[in-house]
Amino acid sequence: MTLAYSSSKFGAGLAVKSRRLQTVYLPALGLELVDASASKAAAKLLSPGRRRVFFMNAHCCNIHRRNPHYAEAVAGADLLLPDGIGVELAAKFTGHALTANLNGTDFVPQLLQRAAAMGKSVYLFGGRPGVADAAAARLLRDIPGLCIAGTRDGYKGAQDSGAAIAAINASGADIVLVALGVPMQELWLHRNADRLQADLTLGVGALFDFLSGSVARAPKVVRAARMEWVWRLAMEPRRMARRYLAGNASFLAHAGLTALRRKQLTNLQQRCLDITVSVLALLMLTPLLLAAALAVRADSRGPALFKQTRVGLNGRTFTMFKFRSMTADAETRRAEVLHASDRDGLCFKSRQDPRITRVGRWLRRTSIDELPQLFNVLRGEMSIVGPRPALPSEVADYPPRALGRLAVKPGITGVWQVSGRASVGFKEMIEMDLGYIKARSLRLNLQLILRTFGAVVSGRGAY
CA torsion angle for 182, 185, 190, 193 (degrees, to 10)? Predict the structure, then answer.
């Protein structure tokens, strides 16, 4: 099991696999971006089918917010590639760590290397007169076997769109790189999408300038530090000051505030859902709760309710309630059975645990033993949906990545619970919980609540 659940099953926000290529919706940007390695992205772009592809960096996102025509063009693209540290930071505001920075200057040559091996040709359209030719010459030196179908500048060569399109189509190019600058190149590709015959078209910004040497790239050490924007600002302070200083600040402020508002709204929605569901469930299930309590008391000595310290939001402990499904001395006997766990990882679970009572097995099989946690939900210690609350001893041994599941309130049900419960290993459970936290929304919570009924009926992993 991976985190790439389908959007129809779990809702917007979780990573989505479109056959072989994974994408992720970033609420802070209002965009769905490719979330994959450069090699996987290149393979998808060159696979059979027609695609229009744009790169999205902080500057593009700023224009996207203000220019409705550009926003329409972006919405019409088949794939959007994340470009730059700004987009990477914006993704992290909502808990997403993008797989790769697919900036055009580095990614397009990798794409063309694969294209050359496949016998595909490329057309370069844009830049000042002579720049596209110089860029083509550089590509031919760097990529043996690459076929350049043609070049055309973005000044006089772009004045007559009909003539430019006719020349591109006549070249028989499989790939067209358009370097007219943002937003002109995206608007041009959007307007002429039906007239261009190439399978793959990309808006590539200043790529030709870098390839031709017209604009010097930052040294590798600067690029490795993710500070190439500082280099470009130093090289062209007048032209780039507004874009990189005011623009980057505006972009990060907007993305941060959007993420904060979304988090606050999500928390409010979740609390309203928790109160509504827990109150209605307690009112409807009171006879069942009373019957379960009587059955526990009649089956074995000890209280009907079992209380245990668990770890909740941000590592705070609380007392969790369950119907007692084990003998009264179960906690003192825990060390005796730890070696018999059926589950990989830190969390103990044994199908043949001798401490479980007869009534307890039935309660666990039907998940009725968890119903008293509705009171924990009302008290604000738990949610209806969320990661299962862990024992303090388990959390003490968590690897650093697992601590991320403490970022939200624990829940009665969740992705892990509807995906097999105890049959799911510890590492897999952690990835499921982290994926849920990234994608948490009212819609997703409602979907998981509905799926819980099927999980209870099947009883998979419930013991």
Answer: -160
The whole-angstrom separation of Cα 80 and Cα 128 is 26
Cα gap 116→46, rounded to integer Å: 11
Q: What string of H, E and C letters represents the secondary structure of the chain? A: CCCCCCHHHHCCCCCEEECCEEEEEECCCCEEEECCCHHHHHHHHCCCCCEEEEEECHHHHHHHHHCHHHHHHHHCCCEEEECCHHHHHHHHHCCCCCCCCCCHHHHHHHHHHHHHHCCCEEEEEECCCCHHHHHHHHHHHHCCCCEEEEEECCCHHHHCHHHHHHHHHHHCCCEEEEECCCCHHHHHHHHCCCCCCCCEEEECCCHHHHHHCCCCCCCHHHHHCCCHHHHHHHHCHHHHHHHHHHHHHHHHHHHHHHHHHHHHHHHHHHHHHHHHHHHHHHHHHHHHHHHHHHHHHHHCCCCCEEEEEEECHHHCEEEEEEECCECCCCCCCHHHHHHHCCCCCCCCCCCCCCCECHHHHHHHHHCHHHCCHHHHHHCCCCEEECCCCECHHHHHCCCHHHHHHHHCCCEEECCCHHHCHHHCCHHHHHHHHHHHHHHCCHHHHHHHHHHHHHHHHHCCCCC
Q: Say whether pTM exceeds 0.85.
A: no
CB atoms within 10 A of CB 62: 19
**Phi, psi (rounded to 5 degrees) for 115:** -65, -40
Nearest 5°: the CA angle 124, 185, 82 is 95
CB 203 within 8 A of CB 125: no
Per-residue pLDDT of the chain (463 residues; tens, 9 = 90+): 233 333 333 433 444 444 458 888 887 898 999 999 999 999 999 999 999 999 999 999 999 999 999 999 999 999 999 999 999 988 888 767 789 999 999 999 999 999 999 999 999 999 999 999 999 999 999 999 999 999 999 999 999 999 999 999 999 999 999 999 999 999 999 999 999 999 999 999 999 999 999 988 888 888 887 788 888 888 888 888 888 888 888 998 988 888 888 778 888 889 999 999 999 999 999 999 999 999 999 988 889 999 999 999 988 999 999 999 888 777 766 666 655 555 555 555 556 677 788 888 889 888 899 999 999 999 999 999 999 999 998 999 899 889 989 989 999 999 888 887 667 788 888 889 988 988 888 999 999 999 988 877 765 545 4
